[in-house]
Amino acid sequence: MSYERRYRPPRRHSAARRRRRRRRNYLLLLCLFLGAAVGLLSLLQRDVGETEAEVAPESQAEDSQIPAPVVKAYYTAAELGLPTLTSARDADGDGIDDYTDILLGARAYIATDPYYESRYYEENDGYPNDGCGVCTDVIWEALQAAGYDLKSLMDADIAAYPWAYPNIEDADPNIDFRRVENQLIFLRRHAQSLTLSFDDPSQWQPGDIVVFEEHIAICSDRRNAAGVPFIIHHGNPIDGAVEADQMWKYVVVGHFRWNG
Question: Between 180-190 and 150-160, two packed helices, what is the crossing angle to 10 degrees?
């Protein structure tokens, strides 16, 4: 009995089935690759751990001596390679030069934590006596600490040269010495006028008086990284009386050094 071999055409799979098979193969290859990568990473981590464990104690000691970078709140002139000037005068005879006395006087005043409020004082010769104050009070307090009575000096100048103070119609000793515009005029007439530029920070010294638009302050001996001095001032009720890197907040219109 013979059998005829019948021709059977090859089975053809649909395109969708072929795509499923390819995806399955790709996923299998991907799993194999990820498994190999995880194994290699584990080996590398183990080698690194063994290497660190073998580091000599001397090397560890050397590494521990590397100083961490320091972020400073402020800089001194010496740290920035800038000179610090001192006055040849000591008006109050306390053994401290006038520039330093002015700086320390301003710092001592803001340490009393005055509350910012503009008031008129009919009594006490116009001086605040209730714990309140404004920016101009920092100036006369600082000069007073150096041995100078700014109120008396300004009252005398206003009385002798009224034309130099065009904003004053009727002189009032109780308030004239506490106005920014009047202090600016007086300083222009009697103090050393200096640069308004910060290109050379050495031109700005501790105890200098800086006048802004409707504000005034004393330069500190603390500086920012660019060498610009902090200011000691009483700007508003929110900030209070502070010594801070705030020169940038205002427009400078005057820079003076008091030489008696």
Answer: 80
